[in-house]
Amino acid sequence: MAPQQRMRPRSRSCRRAVVAAAVVVASAALTAGPGFAAGVGVGAGAGAGAARVTDPAPAPTPTTSVPASAAPLPVPAGHAPAPVSPTPVPARPTPTPTTASPAPVAPVPPAFGAFLDSGPLGVARMAQLSSWLGGTELKVAHTYLPGDRWSDIEGAPGFLDVWAHWRRQKADRMLVLNVPMQERNEEGIDDTDVRGLLARGAAGEFDHHFRALAERLVELRVPDTVIVLGWEMNGTTYTHRCGPDPEAWKKYWNRIVTTMRAVPGQKFRFDFTPSRGRDAVPWTQCYPGDDTVDIIGMDSYDQPTGISFDEQVREPYGLQQHVDFAKAHGKPVSYPEWGLFRNGDNAEYMRRMLAWMDVHEPLYNTLTDYCPHGVWQCSANPRSSGVYRSELSSHTDSATPTPTPTSTPTPTPTPVLKPPATPACATTPGTR
């Protein structure tokens, strides 16, 4: 996709504007113990998600039952071997063996979540979104480190605590953390300065900041965090962009990953995530190599105006090239940011994107849920909201023939009971 002006998802600096007020909400939620995660059930595994109402029927799964021809043959009554004893002993019929039918196994959909806010409010809202989806459990929490100062990128005390707490509650949950590669990350630094910063990063000048972040995450007992490092590097928005010097960018990425992996106890996975299409530079030119990439993601919004979903699939560096590239490199795919954008309340896009992810089974996906992209916190997209809710409404017990109902205690209400129709920060769009 050629470079173009695009309204960017709400500035991460704007996302931080609600953090201070949200701390009060999160504190109240945490005081109530697990109540802030109300409506969250127990999942089946690290990749577990919500079964969809309208998913197409999966391909038949080969069974492992023993064919009748291989089963032990019963001895019919009256055909027992002749007894050795001179006194005839009546033959005892051998009962016909019965084979219990295996319980049906439902396919495990990919883990999913939504970006709801960068701060503690994002955690509190996850339970509410789960309730709106009929109890479907969100397996993925997604937030962004601020990129104003290096101290923020190091994981300032207090910012990540509530996210780490949510992650630790269940073994099959996933924490996804977008990590800037430069401070002043949204300040419109020109290409000449970016080129110099990339060279300094490639030489190791900034290693200690990422070591501090890795140590912080291990200290918080979330050493398996998925790190979306230097996201949308193929665009022009961020100071951590690749375009001014792709070779230096790749060296810098490799230094960061090597530095963070050297911290004892870490189990990080690093997600290389460009935006869909060509943008400023082809994202393939920025790929740093298989040794330092664990996941190949893509941020994919419904844009530009008038583009069909099929065009989003076929365009150069689009959805199809993304999955093909990941397959060629032996990596799983992800969709850390996706949602509506330039084409309004596009229910067809919502339906097709969900179906695309059903087919290609990303490791995880997280919808960007605020206006204009979202379906829960944005009342402007009712038709797409209906599709999303229908597809992801809870049917998590479908794999169990006769589920046993369990009583769930009513959680203590938190101050955040209803999402705003339009978040305050969503009304001041930027461009990229």
Protein model, in words:
29% of the residues lie in helices and 9% in strands. Helix 8 (246-261) links the parallel strand 4 and strand 5. It starts with 11 loop residues before the first helix and ends in a 40-residue tail after the last helix. It has helices at residues 12-15, 19-31, 120-132, 150-153, 161-168, 191-202, 207-219, 246-261, 309-314, 319-328, 347-360, 382-392, and strands at 111-115, 140-144, 174-179, 226-229, 269-272, 295-297, 300-301, 333-339, 364-368. The longest helix has 16 residues, at 246-261.
Topology (SSEs and partners):
Layout: H1 12-15, H2 19-31, E1 111-115, H3 120-132, E2 140-144, H4 150-153, H5 161-168, E3 174-179, H6 191-202, H7 207-219, E4 226-229, H8 246-261, E5 269-272, E6 295-297, E7 300-301, H9 309-314, H10 319-328, E8 333-339, H11 347-360, E9 364-368, H12 382-392
Parallel strand pairs: 1-9, 2-3, 3-4, 4-5, 5-6, 6-8, 7-8, 8-9
Helix pairs in contact: 2-3, 6-8, 7-8, 11-12
Gist of the model:
Helices cover 29% and strands 9% of the residues. With 432 residues, the chain is an alpha/beta fold.
Hey, roughly how much beta strand do the residues contain? 5-15%
Share of helix, binned:
25-40%
Q: Rg, please? A: 26 Å
Low-pLDDT runs of 5+ residues are 1-99, 395-432
Overall 3D shape: globular
Distance between the termini: 14 Å
Keywords for this entry:
432 residues, alpha/beta, 9 strands, 29% helix, globular, disordered N terminus, disordered C terminus
